[in-house]
TrEMBL record:
<keyword id="KW-0812">Transmembrane</keyword>
<keyword id="KW-0443">Lipid metabolism</keyword>
<dbReference type="InterPro" id="IPR044844">
    <property type="entry name" value="Trans_IPPS_euk-type"/>
</dbReference>
<dbReference type="GO" id="GO:0045338">
    <property type="term" value="P:farnesyl diphosphate metabolic process"/>
</dbReference>
<dbReference type="GO" id="GO:0055056">
    <property type="term" value="F:D-glucose transmembrane transporter activity"/>
</dbReference>
<keyword id="KW-0472">Membrane</keyword>
<dbReference type="GO" id="GO:0051996">
    <property type="term" value="F:squalene synthase [NAD(P)H] activity"/>
</dbReference>
<feature type="transmembrane region" description="Helical">
    <location>
        <begin position="412"/>
        <end position="432"/>
    </location>
</feature>
<dbReference type="GO" id="GO:0005789">
    <property type="term" value="C:endoplasmic reticulum membrane"/>
</dbReference>
<dbReference type="Pfam" id="PF00494">
    <property type="entry name" value="SQS_PSY"/>
</dbReference>
<dbReference type="InterPro" id="IPR008949">
    <property type="entry name" value="Isoprenoid_synthase_dom_sf"/>
</dbReference>
<dbReference type="GO" id="GO:0008610">
    <property type="term" value="P:lipid biosynthetic process"/>
</dbReference>
<keyword id="KW-0808">Transferase</keyword>
<dbReference type="InterPro" id="IPR002060">
    <property type="entry name" value="Squ/phyt_synthse"/>
</dbReference>
<comment type="similarity">
    <text>Belongs to the phytoene/squalene synthase family.</text>
</comment>
<comment type="function">
    <text>Catalyzes the condensation of 2 farnesyl pyrophosphate (FPP) moieties to form squalene.</text>
</comment>
<dbReference type="InterPro" id="IPR006449">
    <property type="entry name" value="Squal_synth-like"/>
</dbReference>
Amino acid sequence: MGLLGDVMRHPSDFVPLLQVYMLSREARRLPQDPSFKFCYSVLNRVSRSFAIVICNLRGEIRDAVCIFYLVLRALDTVEDDMALPDEKKLPLLLSFHTLCYDRGFSMDDCGTGDYKELMEKYPLVVDAFLKLSKPYQDVIVDITKRMGAGMHDFIEKDEVKTIKDYNLYCHYVAGLVGVGLSNLFAMSKLEDPKVFASPNLDDLSNSMGLFLQKTNIIRDYLEDIMEEPAPRMFWPREIWGKYAKELDEFKLGCNREKAVECLNHMVCNALSHATDALTYMSKLREKSVFAFCAIPQVMAIGTLAVCYNNGEVFERVVKLRKGLSAQLMVKTKSMEDVYRIFLVFARDIGSTAQTLQMKGSDPTVEDVLKAVDAIEEACEDGLKTMGLGGTMKAKNGAGAGAELDSQPPVPIVVRLFVLFFCVGYILYAWNADAVRVSYGVRPGAAGPMADMVHKLLSLPVLFYAVTVGILGKRIGSPEPDPIQPRRR
């Protein structure tokens, strides 16, 4: 049943999903300027989630971040297009930053779908870029130049061999984004330039990017390995070589045990950046900038929790439940929220790791538990610094994931919606002929069998209406785990 089935199983998802829908509608409101109108239109199509957080930014920084994102997305489209010959791709990666000033540049042989349109209509992005103030332009050009050079170097490599190479690649394609964004925030004066001038800020900014990028690389294993005409993989041989002779062996069900061990190793590596990400976010003061930075980070730790020890990563692209993603988006408003959400997901990973430890079946479980301990310590210390206390224990042995969903019974707005929907359907099911007559349709037009099916379906709908709409109870366990079930 897809999203509808999820909402029926988790009624508390309804209000957050509605809120995110309204935010997405707001993000789709386009400016009058033709160049910015195109930029925000294509932004909504290539990344709805980023469009929401970008459009929530205040003032001129919003346009700067939008253009920054699209310029780097265009550069990434060049890098990702495996049909583009290297003799054309390599020099383009090195010179792409200069095209920020070239209103005549476009490509009709690069990318697919919305990305192809982005490349074909790139002059509109250039036009919008040239309307930004020069300090913003300089940051965008500098980061694009450095990223293009890094991508160029890795195109010529057959694979990512070492963890050092892996970190370097992620720095080029994501860490530099974090560095650039920090510079944009400081220039906008929305964040304190003095705070953002601290010596270690670039390292923290880099970790923000690496945490997101490594999560995406882990999650997208199957999508990347199946890419045509040839896959480009970024899992480092130094890690996967301990578990297989070839990286594509993990697709096969017969290799699932080793595949999951390798996956857990990759998750462990990604978790090493979480504490730096927490430190960076704790420095943010402006609400819209905070939400822009924090929402992707809580999504990342949630995605890692879903992926950890989950063999389905090798069968499909594993994602957070849409309703849970919506909850995270609307709940992440302060550093307290971030600490508590990180604690929930870190402890979910830790709970699974402890089970593996007892079985003695995973070679990286000790390192995972150390990473989880470091995240817990950072979160609890942060909460104590805020005078809030950091202890969060799962109730009655429930998994850590249940804590995120622990709240009062189904909200009254959801209960009213459920009652309205269910009562309406029940009335229709038992009065279908009368409804048809009122619309000028002859009685029995749908056939007695169809009417009987509707009447039978109305029985579980009645049960659902009473349980959720009247009693306010959730379907399933009292505190449903928001993390998707994992499977070996």
